[in-house]
Automatic annotation (TrEMBL):
Lineage of the species this protein comes from: Bacteria, Pseudomonadati, Thermomicrobiota, Thermomicrobia, Sphaerobacterales
Protein name (database record): ChaB family protein
UniProt cross-references to InterPro entries, sorted A to Z: ChaB (IPR009317), ChaB_sf (IPR037205)
């Protein structure tokens, strides 16, 4: 189901991401959910992919941070 607010996101997403990243995830999920016939699993995969364009998981802290990873 589409998410109306960031607070509606799954706890696993809310606990992992900073607020701006939650917004990216929510918008990408909602768009993919509608576009791909309410396929929730696919929408979550697409949302993570969209998020990874702007954020990466810091290897030292394990937190999601904005910007390219050091590998790029």
């Amino acid at each position: 189901m589409p998410y109306k607010r960031r607070s509606d996101l799954p706890e696993s997403v809310r606990d992992a991401l900073p607020p701006h990243a939650e917004g990216i995830y929510k918008e990408a999920f909602n768009s993919a959910y509608e576009q791909y016939g309410h396929d929730e699993a696919r929408a979550h995969r697409i949302a993570w992919g969209a998020l990874k364009r702007k954020y990466h998981k810091d290897e030292q802290t394990g937190k999601w941070v904005e910007g390219p990873s050091e590998d790029e």
